[in-house]
Amino acid sequence: MQEEYIKEKNLIQRTEEELDVELIKSIIKTKQDLRDSNKNYEFAEGELIDYYLYQIKANQSKLNYLLKKAKKNGLMIDMIREIEIRKQQYNSDIEAG
After folding, report:
1. Residues 40, 56: Cα–Cα separation, whole Å
2. What number of other Cβ atoms are within 10 A of residue 79's Cβ?
């Protein structure tokens, strides 16, 4: 006789505010990735030039998408909120070790 295993799924319902914060965090991370790609491109040589150009283009496309999504959701990303979220991320990273 075969035993049947049932996988239990716990769906976590997130509030609209949590989803907005997650979106803003993604925007902040993508902005940083874009800055990093641009800086790396400045010092790239040979085949790495194409690599960083691709990264820049990909990050710009992602950022445009995220900003459109934020605008559609009615989010206004101001500097104060961005700084607060960065601070929360920094504190979380320190606690994680």
Report:
1. 10
2. 7
- Residues across the chain: 97
Residue 85 lies in a domain: yes
Report how many domains make up the chain. Answer: 1
C-alpha dist (Å) from residue 26 to 19, 22, 41, 89? 11, 6, 22, 12
* The dihedral formed by the CA atoms of 82, 84, 87 and 92, expressed in degrees to the nearest 10: -100
For 12-27, the pLDDT digits (tens) are: 778 888 888 888 889 9
- Report the pLDDT value the prediction gives residue 9, as an integer from 0 to 100: 63
Query: Within 13 A of 29's CA, how many CA atoms are on the CB side?
Result: 10
Look-up: residue for tokens 């990909």? 58
Q: What is the pLDDT of residues 57-89, one digit of tens each?
A: 999 999 999 999 988 988 877 766 777 777 788
